[in-house]
User: Fold HTH tetR-type domain-containing protein from Oceanobacillus indicireducens.
Amino acid sequence: MKGKIIQTAIDLFDEKGFKETSIEDITDNIGATKGTFYYYFKSKQELLKDIHLSFILDLLQKQEEIIRDPSKNNYQKLYDIIYLIISGIKTKGKSARIIFREMRHIEEVHLEQIKGKRRDFRLNVQALLEDGIAKGHFKNNVRADILAFSILDMVNRTYYWYNPDGEISEEELVNYYLEIILNGIKNRGPEHN
Amino acid sequence: MKGKIIQTAIDLFDEKGFKETSIEDITDNIGATKGTFYYYFKSKQELLKDIHLSFILDLLQKQEEIIRDPSKNNYQKLYDIIYLIISGIKTKGKSARIIFREMRHIEEVHLEQIKGKRRDFRLNVQALLEDGIAKGHFKNNVRADILAFSILDMVNRTYYWYNPDGEISEEELVNYYLEIILNGIKNRGPEHN
Amino acid sequence: MKGKIIQTAIDLFDEKGFKETSIEDITDNIGATKGTFYYYFKSKQELLKDIHLSFILDLLQKQEEIIRDPSKNNYQKLYDIIYLIISGIKTKGKSARIIFREMRHIEEVHLEQIKGKRRDFRLNVQALLEDGIAKGHFKNNVRADILAFSILDMVNRTYYWYNPDGEISEEELVNYYLEIILNGIKNRGPEHN
Amino acid sequence: MKGKIIQTAIDLFDEKGFKETSIEDITDNIGATKGTFYYYFKSKQELLKDIHLSFILDLLQKQEEIIRDPSKNNYQKLYDIIYLIISGIKTKGKSARIIFREMRHIEEVHLEQIKGKRRDFRLNVQALLEDGIAKGHFKNNVRADILAFSILDMVNRTYYWYNPDGEISEEELVNYYLEIILNGIKNRGPEHN
DNA sequence: CATGAATGAGGATTCATTCAT
DNA sequence: GATGAATGAATCCTCATTCAT
Assistant:
């Protein structure tokens, strides 16, 4: 039941928004009553917090596995992190969009924790880039902080337009991103004017 | 008075969200009454629509001036479009963030117009990229459609973290973006391992 | 202008109701502003009172002309009064329906006057019936008071379903009413079973 | 509680009108809160619809019992139908007046159903008259359609002036009506001039 | 475990009216 | 004569939440 509530809430929050989804919307959808909701959750905001946390902790944990893996170089780690995000669209896209949009409704008490985890995720990317710069993988004129923002912004927005069941596969998309990030789009061939 | 309402609404919508901002919040802030609001606007949604439209029409018009300018090549046009976005953060950042977040509350009737204009903006970038590919400015293995999304997603998200009065100037930021987009971050120098 | 306001108000009050018609509905319809309305009328209720009074005073005056006419007998007077009502449907049906429905919104101050006039109209019919009973025109077992109600209720409701431009002419309808009232519908002929 | 709300609403709608009665008026009267109202009714209009329907369905059902009864001839059926209406004044007069006056506020969706039922009631009377004409009970020069309107208009308006606890009993009133309808008021005795 | 009843605070909207110009 | 700006009171409705059972 608790799982059903969470799943339905994710669907509705994504579709209509947190504020626009009432407890009754959720319980109606699963044939339960409002009372049932309050049996499982202290409040609507607590449910939102749970959704946020379970998404972000899972992602962060997977990211840290990638980063810690000594068998991968920085290019591969960057690839894996982007793939981690893109491949989650199919199953966790709704959660992700909720997180980007509804952070405002997280209560003060939990806000710091959640913002901290999101920051950790970004700082991990930034550290990866800094390491890559130090090791000469990446150019030394890039700012790792801005770049971490840029890459994540670009990749995260994919949640809003990419259809994982469309003509472009997840792997192709990740490769596109990596190609742009690594090599840019400027043509340096002989036909260049 | 109408202008004051709009300005206050933009501030509050950005700060607290559309749904979370009551008409009274707005009018209290300017020492007017709720009645006054409804003298100037048919509904709360109409105000939101006005904010959306005035932002997007202005941006689109400026973009089209850039694109039509025959004295600029595609690199310069791309620079100018990114600069157009970034330089708007200071004065119109709040409107922009509202637009990214509150589209859901636009009524069906106006939705198509607004979505159309946003699509136009993106398709203009895409067309610019396609033209650049055809002319050999840009590599011919990039997909202009995905790229247009990527560039705009990356640049648009700047609204959420960039402080125009901070240590990085708008021009520097635009240059960073252009550098990444055009040349990527991979180090190709001799020190490369 | 005042006339235009009254006419439009009558149309709208009939169509949507007094409470449901706003001052703005009225003024919008004639291309004026709310201010204009208040130039001509002290309040919305005053306008309603004006409509009531001008309708009822006109009707009452015509009724009294009929009753005073020494050349007519009671049958003819009854005919004429019913015809007076029916023939007013085309031009004053809207006013009439407003009067039946919106009396509740007349202010205390004017209520007695208007109710008095409506009562006068009914009592005139009652007096006519009493006179007819005394003179042997009408049966002496009828109660003039109930009958006055019955006749007026029946005839007045015609405003709600009769179409003066339809297949039944006003004269025919009046004759029907008179026939029923005078002779009833019971078949007394030989074919009676 | 739901019953208390309906009863109070009927009282107030009859006394002040639908539009003029606020939800708070109703709930204040029974010591409940606005929220309670909306626990039991989706909207104010739904409550009105419920009042309409329960009144009219009950009446229609009873009418149909009368009509189907093979032991009664058309005179008796006409009597019973009029008695059905008049005898309802004491207990359901308020509902009846609401129905005559507030149909306008019924939502489009339910309007057809309710208008249909009212039409059925009238058409049943019309059919009864037609049957009576065919059987020679009633004169063959009467129009059953107009007559059905006339009889119902006359009888239904009783709701507005008849006091069931006054000097005239319900049975007397019904007899008066039937006498007028069947035999008319014209004196045909020898003293007739 | 789960429900149904009840609440109360908040919020969008309507609208008659006033008044300075 | 007429208008536009502003008001404020009233009203419908939503909804998270509580609680006894």
Remarks:
- The mean pLDDT of chain D is 91.
